[in-house]
Write a structure and sequence with these properties.
Chain lengths: ~375, ~375
């Protein structure tokens, strides 16, 4: 059958890509079973018992739409960050928010600056709205703020994206440098500062919540998917000047949030003791991943996130063989997509049993690869 | 502070509207408390016990992203409808799917045909992508298929929308007429046939699942929000030719679904006995709403949905006074937005206690109004 012939000129040309292949698809396609799910930067320590209690309490109310204003969650986040409610808006994870941001700013052909090998889902949205990706290389496995700024100016780009701490490398820029970068931007360039891994960053990496709240051209994105252990709940939020946060209300799916997820996020935010426990576990698991890497002759990169990039010392084909080989052993990990980052594999933290499986499987795989 | 100056030409002009004000916002803004939530066409009979069990079981796994391919749910829906998996795609409720559909087809200025007073959320998306709404009036409180087809032809419209059964009137067109309408459309016009209320419709209203599967220009939308009692889970799906269903993969947020919600939808679909029970309760509640209307001198319209439109016999101002007055009594209902539909109020079904509150409050309100 032929396709509907009257798609927009943009959508007609788009491929049916998915930014990441899920572990479930890999299981189906390769007939394998994931035993250690440590590839998607999820958080296998899971949500707090208080969160599970809140979800159970909310479940019978799931016949009701969630509050389209997300009033209570915005209020709680504002209080948590010392901001006002109108400086927060909510979306279906940072992934959903990124789509909305791109839609706000990008008309076909406009340039969008990002780093080569940075977040594929952001790129997916840029291409989806007809934007033109302009990439700058990482410098020493870090996002290169100077090069990003140069590219913005050269291209007169309306949109620039980077993550701090960074995915997929786990590296970071100092918070002061991030603020300087934002303040140096032309007022006609919107910065998406993706702080998905903000909770696990060392002191000084995440600028104070109000550090850039005076800039209408800065949107900071945060999530409950990582340190809070709620990737499957799909709750992200933005911190922005009130005028900027309000733009989301022009385009978002107002009745788009899961009611149980919102309850989960509220409970997770309220349980900062649990978050502290998990952060300690994440730090310990990062150490463990590092030790396993070293024991196998590899170099773990310093990480401010819930994952560790491991330099395997050779090329992308070698790293890919390791990723594929580990999957044969039931260990699901991922790797950066482009050179020279793709000399690395990327391993997410997980409970002890997952780390043990990795420790057991990696030497086996390397032995096979020779 | 000034707004970011470089929004797209469309987004710059958009108002920050919400298609519907939620009952929570009404409570906050008016300092009232909803006792009977029978305004948003939710289903107060709630989800099945088997669904709550599935949600509880899935909750601890909410640290994992949902499968971006929604394989299992698409497989289950395909089996349920006697279709193949590639003829189904999934989204965050019909609301989310409508946004994706509009995005596929609408470039600024293109005409979109719908009925005057039909679904505001569809209109929200059309305006959001720069489309131009072309509306035709209802005929005898039903969507007028002949007039819709005329408008499509006159405007050479790439997109036409209607709901069957209809919201906000609860009326319906015969399934055979719907199929004839779809087959008479130009191949360059995409039909969104919104069947959100499909489960509560009488026999003959919903065409067989495969009735239009040979048409690349037809997308049927279904949901777990209504009869299945899962509005807060945000799970909708489309039935379409495989080539058409696949277009969603070019634009959707692949990692956008809540994991617990997907588990809820799977369990709801599996529990058709519970659905049958709820359908009987919905039918009884419709009868009860009708009796309450008649007892107060009003005329209930026949309904194929989980709500009843009640003709109050006067104008929109009068109907609005009833809606506002009922809210003072803690009874949340809504009403159609434009004349002549807005001579009606719209009451959603709910459990006995909600119906009792309505029966008690309505005469009080009418007495006050005189």
């Amino acid at each position: 059958m032929s396709i509907f012939p009257r798609l927009t000129s943009i959508v007609r040309e788009l491929p049916a890509t998915v930014p990441f292949v899920g572990p479930e698809a890999i299981e189906r396609n390769r007939g394998l079973k994931v035993k250690a799910r440590i590839g998607a930067n999820e958080n296998g320590f899971g949500p707090a018992p208080s969160v599970l209690a809140a979800m159970a309490q909310a479940a019978p109310e799931t016949w009701k739409y969630a509050d389209p204003e997300n009033f209570e969650l915005r209020e709680a986040l504002a209080k948590h960050h010392g901001l006002s409610r109108d400086q927060i808006n909510i979306g279906a994870g940072i992934d959903g928010l990124l789509g909305e941001i791109v839609r706000m700013v990008i008309e076909p052909g406009l340039p969008v600056v990002t780093s080569l090998g940075a977040y594929p889902t952001f790129n997916y949205h840029v291409v989806g709205y007809g934007g033109r990706l302009v990439t700058v290389p990482y410098a020493n496995d870090r996002e290169d703020l100077g090069a990003l700024l140069d590219a913005v100016r050269r291209e007169d780009a309306p949109l620039v994206y980077f993550a701090n701490p960074d995915n997929p490398m786990g590296s970071w820029n100092d918070g002061k440098d991030v603020v300087d970068f934002a303040r140096a931007l032309p007022k006609t360039t919107l910065l998406v500062l993706d702080e998905a891994y903000g909770e696990t960053a060392p002191d000084g990496v995440i600028p104070p919540a109000d550090a850039l709240i005076d800039r209408p051209n800065v949107i900071r994105t945060r999530t409950f998917s990582k340190a809070y252990g709620l990737a499957g709940a799909r709750i992200g939020y933005v911190i922005a000047a009130a005028e900027t946060a309000a733009i989301f209300d022009r385009v978002r799916n107002h009745f788009g949030m899961s009611r149980v997820s919102v309850a989960a996020a509220l409970a997770a935010l309220a349980d900062q003791d649990y978050l502290a426990e998990v952060k300690a576990k994440i730090a310990a698991a990062r150490e463990r991943i590092g030790s396993i890497a070293v024991a196998n002759g590899f170099s773990p990169l310093p990480s401010a996130t819930n994952f560790v990039a491991i330099d395997c010392g050779r090329d992308g084909a070698y790293a890919k063989a390791i990723v594929d080989g580990l999957m044969e052993e039931g260990v699901f990990i991922r790797m950066p997509g482009v050179a020279p980052l793709n000399r690395c594999i990327r391993v997410s933290v997980g409970p002890q049993s997952d780390m043990d499986l990795l420790a057991e499987a990696l030497p086996k795989v390397l032995k096979k690869l020779g």
